[in-house]
Amino acid sequence: MTTTDRKLTEPLGTVAGFFGVLLLLITALGVVGALIGFGSFGGFGRQAIVCATQPNTGYGGSDWTAHLGVAAQHGANLWIDGTLHACAPHPSVYQRLMYTFTGAPTALVWAAILFLVWRLVRAADRQGPFTQLVATRMRLLGWVVLLGALAATVVQSAANAALLNTLLKDQTGVGDAFSTLPRILPVPLLVWAALLTFARIIRLGTAMDEDIQGTV
Questions:
Q1: Structure confidence at residue 2 (pLDDT)
Q2: Cross-strand pairs, 53
């Protein structure tokens, strides 16, 4: 294809490539840092400190300001809102593993999405944007965005709850692993609907083009 035709896949191709390289670079630096003792990667490493945040819970009030040594000006009121963070300076293997699952699923979903976007761009560059292959890969990308986001949210919520149960006494951090879904669902659902709709349009347009060429 000509240089002009290749611009059809921009800026998607460039942006996807940038984030793909950035993800690989961050992963490599994290692994190297954990191995040589200058940091941690996914909860593993010599200097790893494992922390978890209690979800769907807020603590606040005006009385807390006295403990921080702050006071309001005349005519003003102070109010502090916060969440509970718990950390283990010397985490066990189980805590390290649960901490890994609080972030790894999202990273894996992002990697899968970037890979599928790269395949979609390659198909469009090689065969043109209006082909059955492009429509198929666009449809697959939509399903990965939706199901990946849902699966990552559930797994990370369950892992965070399991980690909290090892850090807190007489409390349960389990709660409902599905409670965060309403907050993250709208965007993946919209992207899924858009990709499947455009995939259907491309598939129909390709079929019509083949019928026209067959009758000429």
A1: 46
A2: 85
Q: Give the residue numbers spanning the domain of 168.
A: 3-49+91-215
68: in domain = no
Considering its fold, how many domains does the chain have in total? 1
Secondary structure of residue 50 in the 3-state scheme: strand
In a domain, 76, yes or no: no
pTM reported for the whole predicted model: 0.78
Q: What's the CA gap between 34 and 42, in Å, rounded?
A: 9
Structure token pair of residue 2 = 């000509």
Distance CA 41, CA 112 (A): 20
**Within a domain: 80:** no
- Give a three-class secondary structure readout of 80-130: EEECCEEEECCCCHHHHHHHHHCCHHHHHHHHHHHHHHHHHHHHHHHHCCC
Q: What is the mean pLDDT of each run of 10 residues along the chain (216 residues)?
A: 62 90 87 67 72 72 61 74 82 89 92 95 88 94 96 92 85 60 89 95 80 61
